[in-house]
Every structure is written in structure tokens, then in C-alpha cells.
């Protein structure tokens, strides 16, 4: 067994299994939540629900990120807000606009797109890793967060951290042969794919549902979020 | 009577001292002697001081040692490694290997055929028993009693075992002999295996590549000739001097990779500017070979230089390692749409089932509650 064979396994069969588990798991989670059912709404609406949801999304994407200081969430917890924000922005840049990752999407979806130069993605990756370390320390020292953090929360951090660190070291060709780091990167990605439906990282999908429902609620009551 | 030294034989052929020293310099370069002091080496090379003259060491070896007999067998191959060697642009080295090192038996290059050739092989194996280098080109097919590859009525497996028994060392040239190569590609109808899979009790050097770089092959043989031992090998039995770095590490397009400048197709601006071929499926980052430094055709060019991504032809299982023109970061296979749809449906159905069962439980609980009231 050499690293080339290990790499072929983790890029091939293991990735396939992990991806299929991910698809099945997310479908399961989604169906479960949809079938929880909605309460019948007997209160007459004072505004548009759809409008409220749309406004909520647009404000969340186009306005609040640029003037975060007006939000209470930011004032009370600037570290989490900034580190968390940069972390998510970094993930988007790396996973969508990194050349290597675009090629993954291309092979899965059949379409490719223009990507950002490696140095930009690379700096973004460094920022993302730093943000993740800050969030980890914050979780370690914040008394409230400590109370509500169970094993699942620590594993979330670990399973997201591993692909990022192995990927970063791999792009810089540090310490280990490329195929070793590539194998480790793929193993951690495969584990992450299996872990996502089982954990709260599934918020990558459910976030949009909760945002829509809250927005609809605001719209119905004609209040400004 | 002791055998004549290589120098004596060269003298007889009218080789001048100057030409001899030139040859020694070429051999020293091919062996990678200049790198040796930095490497922790085994055998004779380890005893060398730090200030030594590589060509002088080669000269001493060639003037004291007799010829090195080589028996070259071909099994499931295309003779491409032989072709590459005979068309090599390093005539002195090829001359050294083909004439001075003495290829005692070679099916493609041999003038004799049939029983005569067989006889020559048997004679060489007996005469040089325990001393000859066995070169294997092509994979071995042990499946179904070896019927898929027979020469003179003997299976490739039997021929290899017979020849390996008296060999001092075995050199597996090309990807087929090193790892199974094309014959081993999925679904591997002939059950092809590599030399290493069959022979366990002899020193083996793998010179993978499709074909193997002629200079790497000759360099390895020259090393054996000069030092009487195989060069330092890595975990996959490849000479470290040639396979220590990846193609990516030494690639002339590497700066474009670092800068994120990629050719997007074979005919866009990036391709014309000579940018990195990573997006076009280059396997350079995981391919260990000397293409980028030694190059081909006497240092003229190599695939990446001429605009084609590296196929990874010196890596195990490269035929099954994903599409040649698919980016290396992409997964090896795209999941079957039916399978993905099946997973989606399975997840949804299980979810709906659990939801329905929960719903029924809730209903029955409400019912019981009402009853109690």
C-alpha cells in the first residue's frame, strides 16, 4: 500500500460513498423538518410575507455586512461577528473561486467558471484558518459558550479545521509529499461530508429556511427587522 | 583467463583517452554523482570523500571492471522502452549500454530468432549465472496458467522466474514492468502484475515511465557498473537521484502555477503564453520523474514544455487515475446520476417514513390524552 493507492481510494470510492451519504443524509434531514408541519396561521397578515422574506435576505447580504456596527449582535460580540463573518466569506471564496475546487464542481456539475488568482485565495485561506482558531479560543474561554458546548461542537470545529489546514499546507508544498497531504485532505473532506448531515454544520442549508421563515414573520407583522 | 576491462575493450576499438574521459564525465552525470555528497548513500559511494572528481571515479571503475552482462526480457509490452532507448540522443551512453555493458539477449534487438535466440539466452544465463542484470520490459500475466503471454511455449511467469534465479539484480523498465502499466488497467483481463509482485528475493529497481526515460535507465545501469551496487532507492524501488522530486517541483511552468495563471484550453491566450497546465489535467504535482530536469530528446523538450499536461505515466495505476484532461483536484469518477438520485430518494423516503411514524405516535398520544380527560 503506497500513498498513490491511498489517494486513489480516498479520491475515488471513499469520496463516492461519502458524497452519496451526504446527499441521502441531507434529503433525510430536509424531509424530516418539512414534515414537522406548520401551525395553521389564523392571524390576519398586516404585510406581505414574501416581501418580508425577500427583504430579509437582501438586507442580510447587501446591507448588514457593510455596516455591522449598527447591529446589536456586533456590539455585544464583535469577535464572534467578525471572525465568524470572515470565516464564512473565506469558505465561499476558497470553495467557489479557488481553481482546484472549481475543477471539483466542474467534474460534478459539468460547468466551470472563472476563478481568482491563487495568491488572493491563499490569503483568504490564511484569514479563514486564523478566524477558525479565534472562534475555537472564544469557545474555550467564553463561560456561556463553554456551558452549551458538547462533544458535537468540538468535533464540528475539528472536522472543518482538518480539511482547511491540510489544504493550506498542500498548496504550499510544505513538510510532506504532495500526495500524502492530498490524501489527508481528501480523507478529512470525506469525513466532513459524512459528518455534515449528522451535525449542525447542516445549517449551510437550513440557514436559508430559517432566514425565510423569520423574514416572512417580519413581513406579516409589517415590522422592520 | 580474466575478462578484459571495459577500458581495454574501448582501446581496442580505437577510443582515445580524451573520448574515454568524456564518456566517463557523461556517465558520472547520468549516475547523478554530483548530487551524491549531499545524500546519505549506501555501498561504495558512502566511502567517498566530499571533494572527489566524479569522472575520475567512473574512469577507475571502467578501467578495472569487466563488462556487465545484461539479459533483457519482454513480456506484455509495446517495446516502447527499447525504442526510446535506441532513439536516445545520448549516443555515448547508449553505446555504453548496448555495446559495452553487453546486452546478451534482447528479443527486439537480436538478429537471431527462434531456437538460436533461445539457445543464446540459455548460454548467457549459464555463463554469467549470479552476475547478470535482468532487465524486464512489460508486465507478467500469471492468470489462467499464464496463457495470455507465452514466448516459445513458456509463460511469462515461468520465463521471469527462470531468468530471475541467476540474476544479480533486476531492473524493471517502464510502467508495465514496474507497476503493471496498461495491461493492468481496469478490468485487467490478463491479470497483469509487476515484477515486484512476483519476485521477492532479488534486488529490484523500478524505472517507471511510459516509456522510461533512456538516460534514467542507462544512468541506473551505469551506477551498477561503477559501484557494483544499485543506486539508493525510494519506498517504491525507484532510484532517488531521478525520482526524488515531482515533475511539478522542477517544472518550468511552476511560476505560473504560483501566480495562478492557467491555460483554460489548448488554444487560448494562456496556452499561447505558456501558462500552467493544471486546469487541463496536469498530473505533475503527484508524478515523480526526471522529465522536467533531464527532459527528452537530449534535453530538447518534454511534454509540459511542448504544451501538453503531464499524464503521470511514471505513477502506479496511472491509466485508472482519472481522465487525462480532467483537473487533478477533481474526484476520480463522477457519481452515477441514478445512484445519486437513489441516495436522494432513499434519504427522503426514510425521512418521510420516520416523520409518518412520529406523526402517528403524536396522534395516538393526543387521542389518549383526550380519552383521559
Structure explained in plain terms:
The complex is a heterodimer of chains A (225) and B (373). Chain A is mostly helical. Chain A contains 11 helices and no strands. Chain A has helices spanning 3-11, 13-34, 49-63, 72-76, 78-97, 99-109, 118-141, 143-148, 151-171, 178-195, 203-221. In chain A, helix 2 (13-34) runs parallel beside helix 10 (178-195). The longest helix of chain A is centred in the middle third of the chain and has 24 residues, at 118-141. The mean pLDDT of chain A is 83. In chain B, the strands form 2 sheets. Chain B has a 5-stranded parallel β-sheet, sandwiched between helices. A two-stranded antiparallel ribbon of chain B has the order 4-5. The longest helix of chain B has 36 residues, at 337-372. Chain B has helices spanning 6-12, 17-31, 54-64, 80-86, 91-100, 114-127, 156-165, 174-179, 181-184, 195-198, 214-227, 240-243, 254-258, 269-273, 291-294, 337-372; strands at residues 70-74, 103-106, 132-137, 150-151, 154-155, 167-173, 204-207. Chain B has 3 domains: 6-243, Rossmann fold, CATH 3.40.50.700; 246-334, Cytochrome-c3 Hydrogenase, Chain A, domain 2; 342-373. In chain B, helix 2 (17-31) packs across helix 3 (54-64), helix 4 (80-86) crosses helix 11 (214-227) and helix 5 packs across helix 11 (214-227). Chain B has 373 residues and is an alpha/beta fold. Chain B is built from 16 helices and 7 strands. Chain B is elongated, with a radius of gyration of 28 Å. Classes of the chains: A mainly alpha (225), B alpha/beta (373). The A-B interface holds A 2, 4-5, 7-8, 11-12, 15-16, 19-21, 23-32, 35-36, 99-101, 103-104, 106-108, 115-121, 173, 177-179, 182 and B 235-236, 246, 248-249, 257-262, 278-279, 285-286, 315-317, 320-322, 326-335, 339-340, 343-348, 350-352, 354-356, 359.
Amino acid at each position: 500500500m503506497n500513498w498513490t493507492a491511498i489517494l486513489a481510494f480516498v479520491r475515488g470510492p471513499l469520496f463516492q460513498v461519502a458524497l452519496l451519504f451526504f446527499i441521502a443524509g441531507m434529503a433525510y434531514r430536509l424531509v424530516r423538518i418539512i414534515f414537522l408541519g406548520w401551525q395553521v396561521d389564523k392571524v390576519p397578515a398586516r404585510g406581505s410575507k414574501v416581501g418580508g422574506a425577500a427583504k430579509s435576505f437582501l438586507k442580510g447580504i447587501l446591507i448588514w455586512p457593510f455596516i455591522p456596527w449598527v447591529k446589536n449582535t456586533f456590539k455585544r460580540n464583535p469577535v464572534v461577528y467578525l471572525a465568524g463573518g470572515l470565516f464564512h466569506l473565506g469558505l465561499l471564496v476558497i470553495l467557489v473561486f479557488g481553481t482546484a475546487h472549481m475543477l471539483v464542481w466542474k467534474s460534478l456539475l459539468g460547468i466551470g467558471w472563472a476563478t481568482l488568482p491563487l495568491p488572493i485565495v491563499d490569503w483568504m485561506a490564511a484569514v479563514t484558518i486564523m478566524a477558525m482558531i479565534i472562534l475555537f479560543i472564544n469557545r474555550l474561554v467564553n463561560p456561556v459558550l463553554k456551558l452549551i458546548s458538547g462533544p458535537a461542537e468540538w468535533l464540528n470545529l475539528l472536522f472543518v479545521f482538518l480539511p482547511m489546514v491540510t489544504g493550506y499546507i498542500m498548496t504550499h508544498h510544505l513538510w510532506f509529499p504532495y500526495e500524502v497531504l492530498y490524501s489527508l485532505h481528501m480523507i478529512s473532506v470525506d469525513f466532513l461530508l459524512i459528518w455534515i448531515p449528522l451535525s449542525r454544520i447542516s445549517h449551510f442549508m437550513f440557514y436559508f429556511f430559517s432566514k425565510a421563515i423569520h423574514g416572512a414573520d417580519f413581513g406579516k407583522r409589517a415590522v422592520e427587522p | 583467463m580474466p575478462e578484459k576491462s571495459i577500458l581495454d575493450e574501448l582501446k581496442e576499438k580505437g577510443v582515445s583517452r580524451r573520448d574515454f574521459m568524456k564518456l566517463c564525465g557523461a556517465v558520472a552525470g547520468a549516475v547523478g554523482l554530483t548530487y551524491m555528497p549531499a545524500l546519505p548513500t549506501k555501498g561504495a559511494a558512502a566511502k567517498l570523500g566530499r571533494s572527489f572528481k566524479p569522472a575520475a571515479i567512473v574512469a577507475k571503475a571502467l578501467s578495472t571492471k569487466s563488462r556487465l552482462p545484461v539479459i533483457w526480457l519482454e513480456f506484455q509490452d509495446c517495446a516502447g522502452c527499447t525504442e526510446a532507448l535506441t532513439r536516445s540522443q545520448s549516443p555515448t551512453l547508449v553505446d555504453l549500454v548496448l555495446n559495452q555493458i553487453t546486452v546478451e539477449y534482447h528479443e527486439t534487438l537480436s538478429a537471431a530468432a527462434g531456437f538460436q535466440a533461445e539457445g543464446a539466452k540459455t548460454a548467457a544465463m549459464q555463463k554469467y549465472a549470479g552476475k547478470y542484470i535482468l532487465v524486464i520490459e512489460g508486465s507478467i500475466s500469471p492468470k489462467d496458467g499464464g496463457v495470455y503471454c507465452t514466448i516459445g511455449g513458456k509463460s511469462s511467469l515461468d520465463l521471469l522466474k527462470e531468468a530471475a534465479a541467476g540474476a544479480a539484480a533486476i531492473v524493471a523498465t517502464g510502467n508495465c514492468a514496474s507497476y503493471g502499466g496498461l495491461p493492468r488497467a481496469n478490468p485487467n483481463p490478463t491479470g497483469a502484475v509487476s515484477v515486484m509482485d512476483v519476485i521477492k528475493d532479488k534486488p529490484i529497481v523500478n524505472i517507471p515511465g511510459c516509456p522510461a526515460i533512456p538516460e534514467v535507465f542507462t544512468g541506473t545501469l551505469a551506477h551498477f557498473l561503477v559501484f557494483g551496487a544499485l543506486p539508493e532507492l525510494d519506498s517504491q524501488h525507484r532510484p532517488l537521484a531521478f525520482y526524488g522530486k515531482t515533475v511539478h517541483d522542477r517544472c518550468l511552468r511552476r511560476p505560473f502555477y504560483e501566480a495562478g495563471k492557467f491555460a483554460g484550453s489548448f488554444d487560448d491566450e494562456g496556452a499561447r503564453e505558456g501558462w500552467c497546465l493544471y486546469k487541463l489535467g496536469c498530473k505533475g504535482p503527484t508524478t515523480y520523474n526526471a522529465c522536467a530536469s533531464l527532459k527528452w530528446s537530449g534535453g530538447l523538450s518534454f511534454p509540459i514544455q511542448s504544451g501538453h499536461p503531464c499524464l503521470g505515466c511514471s505513477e502506479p495505476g496511472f491509466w485508472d487515475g482519472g481522465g487525462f484532461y480532467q483537473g487533478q483536484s477533481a474526484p476520480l469518477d463522477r457519481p452515477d446520476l441514478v445512484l445519486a438520485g437513489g441516495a436522494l430518494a432513499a434519504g427522503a423516503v426514510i425521512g418521510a417514513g420516520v416523520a409518518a411514524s412520529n406523526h402517528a405516535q403524536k396522534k395516538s398520544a393526543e387521542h389518549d390524552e383526550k380519552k383521559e380527560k
